[in-house]
Amino acid sequence: MPTESYREAPSMRRAYVLGHPIDHSLSPALHRAAYAYLGEANLGYDRRDTLPDDLPTIMHRVRHPKGTEDAPYIAGLSVTMPLKTAVIKYCDELSETARVTGAVNTVYPRGEKVLGDNTDVIGIVNALLHAGLEPHPERDEPAVIGGGATAISALTALHQLGYRCVSVYARSLHKLGDLQAVAEHLGVQLSIVALAEFPAEQKARRHNPVISTLPARAADDWAPQLTDPAGAPGAAVRPVLLDVAYNPWPSVLASAWEASGGAVVSGLEMLLYQAVEQVLLFTDRTLQPAELLGLINAMCEAVGLPSREHLPAPLAE
């Protein structure tokens, strides 16, 4: 792998989103808008339908680019299902977040090394803060709905926000070994409850925030039972729900939550903020706050999200 820096490399550069299926991905719209804003005219971004068996060839090209149309220099890879664990063995180093979660959604070269990261976690953190969440770990207990790989990222995000006790609602309670191992590593106390119990438990316990990692429509049957997520009328705190699924939007779950007085944020905000981190890694840039806000708003416009006037706290620091 060449050792020259990103901006000194030959002009033929590409980044890709890998996964299967991939036709629905909004990542190209986000990344292309970002690179246009940054003036990265020679950096393209495309979808590439990819299964685990395709990874050896792709990762060989990451390590041995020729700077040609067929074998361009790779600025980075956005990695989605079913590749987030399969790609790990092709990385020389992992970020701490990727190591903890056991998942990589971001691959990029630095010098002679290929690095792996998980920007889903900071995507969740910033989506929650954008929705108005004010973390109060000493007062509130958050909840995660679902027990798969995204639930592990959600748990890690809650840990970064300061929470040390989290309830997890899942169908297959016997399949939560990976989630429990991550919780133990982070020092987070888990309360594991059957998914069917969530509406009644939410009414009694008023979790805040709540992160649903379920697939689209998976909550449609029980979501209308959420009659009181916000507690008593006029309550000072509106519990925040992040529904990672964003198509269709609003989801039945989000509509029921909002109708009962809670605040909702779609998974498209998570997708936005995880992509912001990828753009900075792929271009090896550090932006000043005003330029970073401009970048985010350019990306928002590309996918129909409202513009924003300020950065979430982690980005503003």
TrEMBL record:
Keywords: Amino-acid biosynthesis, Aromatic amino acid biosynthesis, Oxidoreductase
GO biological process, one term: shikimate metabolic process
GO CC terms of this entry: cytosol
Gene Ontology terms for molecular function: NADP binding; shikimate 3-dehydrogenase (NADP+) activity
Biological pathway: Metabolic intermediate biosynthesis; chorismate biosynthesis; chorismate from D-erythrose 4-phosphate and phosphoenolpyruvate: step 4/7
Top-rank taxon, per record: Bacteria
InterPro entries: Aminoacid_DH-like_N_sf, NAD(P)-bd_dom_sf, Shikimate_DH-bd_N, Shikimate_DH_fam
Documented EC number(s): 1.1.1.25
Location of the Shikimate dehydrogenase substrate binding N-terminal domain: 17-107
Iron-sulfur is among the record's keywords: no
Enzyme class: oxidoreductase
Record SUPFAM superfamilies: Aminoacid dehydrogenase-like, N-terminal domain (SSF53223), NAD(P)-binding Rossmann-fold domains (SSF51735)
CDD domains, A to Z: NAD_bind_Shikimate_DH
Protein name, entry field: Shikimate dehydrogenase
Source organism per UniProt: Rothia mucilaginosa
